[in-house]
Design a protein that fits this description.
17 strands; globular; nine-stranded mixed beta sheet; 8 helices; eight-stranded mixed beta sheet; binds 2-OXO-4-methylpentanoic acid; alpha+beta
Amino acid sequence: MLNIRIEKTTCPKELPAADNPLKFGTIFTDHMFLMNYETGKGWHDARIVPYGPIQLDPSAMVFHYGQEMFEGLKAYKSDDGRTILFRPDKNAERAINSNKRLCMPEISVDDFIQAVEAIVKVDEKWIPTKPGTSLYIRPFMFATDPFLGVRPSDTYLFAIILSPVGAYYPEGLNPVKIWIEDDYVRAIKGGIGEAKTGGNYVASLAAQVKAHEEGYSQVLWLDGKERKYIEEVGAMNIFFKIKGKIVTPMLNGSILPGVTRNSAIELCKSWGLEVEERRVSAEELYEASKDGSLEEVFGTGTAAVISPVGHLRFEDHDMQIGDGGIGEISQRLYDTITGIQLGKLEDKFGWTVEVK
Ligand code: COI
């Protein structure tokens, strides 16, 4: 159990106006959570302080060798005024896995959730209530030893910042166009693709720039070995509806195990749909799109929730998915997941946690 010191700001910021579109990740709340780690001493000095710059030595190891990880989850306000988190235990567990892979110290599931609840409670008034909005929670940890040799750091800072957000993609729930990348590679089994760390995102930028230039908003990655099998989009996992079955790439060591991915699988199964977690090749998708059996494509992620895909580009082919609009399963998943998150639908799975 953490002993959290709270220092409230003396100059609170103005809350965003009701008509502010809350462009993803651009507005930050009044406070942040910080906690330090030192080998031999463990985690200490848990505190909530006014949001502001963090001073670091220019030689801090994170700047040079990228030893850092992060998480993403959201808080919602229900119509009856409750503050709700969605599956924070899953983020805490995934953070531990990332920490292990990156030789970073772990934070217990209970302490992680306690820290998230504490900072959300302090900045509760920042949770937006307009449809499609939420308070995005970004926990992150990085190496702070002032040292230029390559080894795991002995000191770390763990922080949590909060950002009121609208839709992740400017398209909102409207279908996005996605580029299947067959040149650059995001991750490979044995590497760090399964960990939530900045290195995976910087690896994606060159292909993302290329895709944007071609009019596509995101990149869909293929496996790094054979460059044949679909992996993930980087900001979300990917699902296909082929001949009535829901198909998603199986977790293979280089794909991020998404919390929304897991929730979508559980929901689809509970609706009696057949769900296959397996290898799926870009060629299979192309053939299925030609014979009309590729019925729906959508991405899942905390930031994006459910993002229907209207077009997929593979080699020289632009495949339109269905009529290019929002598919039936995408809409149903979006309505159900956001309904549970907002406390409007019964939480049969026990996924929500109320912050008191
Ligand atoms: C999330 O969905 O929370 C993520 O971390 C993806 C990020 C690129 C916004």
